[in-house]
Design a protein that fits this description.
This protein is α+β, with helices and mostly antiparallel strands and 343 residues long. The protein has 2 domains: 148 residues, Helix Hairpins (Orthogonal Bundle), CATH 1.10.287; 134 residues, OmpA-like domain (60s Ribosomal Protein L30, Chain: A). The chain has a 5-stranded mixed β-sheet. It is rod-shaped and about 150 Å long. The protein starts with a helix and ends with a strand.
């Protein structure tokens, strides 16, 4: 009866390690996504910094051109006022000339004085006309300069608007890139989880009748006594039979997983906490656990499993499933674990 209870305990499912591994895989995927996103943000920030410098230069140019335009408008107003004064003076001179001409016509005695006054007014009138012509030329030149300044300001404003539109477009592209990365990453995780579920489903069918094989979370656990002799790393005949079944399942599954999913089967070796004697083949439990994991990997490769889909790792006694120094706890800790994961 005690033996039966112990076996039922051994067959109990402990989902906690599998949950921890699944959470670790998700965290690694999130860290990868954040790294890509931060890199994209860094590249965008450098590009935006350059655009900000261009925008500042454009704004400075607009300010300078606006000041020049204000100065030109002030000069134009001054010249227009001068022209108005000259035109007023011209009108007064013409009126005075007409008055004198009428006096000249009416009084012959005063003709010499009137003629002198008319000559003087004619000279002043001619001077006023020339000054008006010069003022008109200056106004035309100022109008041309103002038109050129307005065209230059319009060009700078157009460049500024184009730069702002490009910056907005870059922000939209970054947001879309982040969204697509999230979707792609979620799809990869879902696909790997689906194939992991298929893989373990097949192994359950093949290995469900074995008492020394357990499922712990998302890993298959083989007790070392099933595969290896005590203190050795060479697969015994019974272990070779089990690994041959495993190799067949892996080969069938590899045909269905898409090539873009970079998956591997990790083979982890674990030992108990009993230290090895210095006279054996291995100096410590690190070497023993690594040698056993490597033996399983090499045997799977010999049965046709692609070598690039296998990883061997040794953990010694430092990742126990059961705490304590009892024979039962040490037996549980001497094991080989198989886990399908992403490289």
């Amino acid at each position: 009866m005690a033996l039966g209870r112990n076996r039922r305990r051994d067959r109990s499912v402990d989902y906690w390690p599998g949950f921890v591994d699944a959470l670790s895989t998700l965290l690694m995927a999130i860290m990868f996504l954040l790294t890509v996103f931060v890199l994209a943000q860094f590249i965008l920030s450098r590009e935006i910094s350059g655009k900000d410098e261009v925008l500042n230069r454009l704004n400075n140019q607009i300010s300078e051109l606006t000041e020049l335009l204000a100065l030109e408008k002030g000069s134009k107003q001054d010249i227009e006022d001068t022209l108005a004064n000259l035109q007023s003076t011209l009108a007064v001179s013409e009126s005075e000339r007409s008055r004198l001409q009428s006096l000249l016509d009416s009084g012959a005695g005063n003709s010499s004085a009137a003629n002198a006054r008319v000559g003087q007014l004619s000279g002043e009138l001619e001077d006023a006309r020339q000054a008006g012509a010069r003022a008109s030329s200056q106004i035309d030149l100022l109008n041309q300069q103002i038109a050129a300044l307005r065209a230059q300001i319009a060009s700078v404003e157009s460049a500024l608007q184009a730069s702002e539109a490009k910056d907005t477009s870059s922000q939209v592209k970054i947001a879309d890139l982040g969204r697509r990365l999230n979707v792609a990453l979620a799809q990869r995780v879902q696909e790997l989880n689906r194939y992991r579920s298929d893989f373990f489903g097949r192994l359950r069918e093949i290995l469900s009748d074995r008492e020394n094989i357990r499922i712990v979370g998302d890993r298959f656990v083989f007790q070392s006594e099933v595969l290896f002799p005590s203190g050795g790393n060479d697969l015994n005949p019974e272990g070779q039979v089990e690994m041959a079944k495993l190799a067949t399942a892996i080969i069938d599954l590899a045909k269905e997983i898409p090539a873009e999913i970079n998956w591997v089967l990790r083979v982890d070796g674990h030992t108990d906490n009993v230290q090895l004697s210095g006279n054996g083949r291995f100096r410590d439990n690190w070497e023993l656990s690594s040698a056993r994991a490597t033996s399983v990997v090499k045997y799977l490769v010999s049965k046709g499993v692609p070598a690039n889909r296998l990883v061997a790792a040794g953990f010694g006694e430092y990742q126990p499933l059961a705490e304590g120094d009892t024979p039962e706890a040490r037996s549980q800790n001497r094991r080989i674990e198989l886990k399908l994961t992403e490289r």
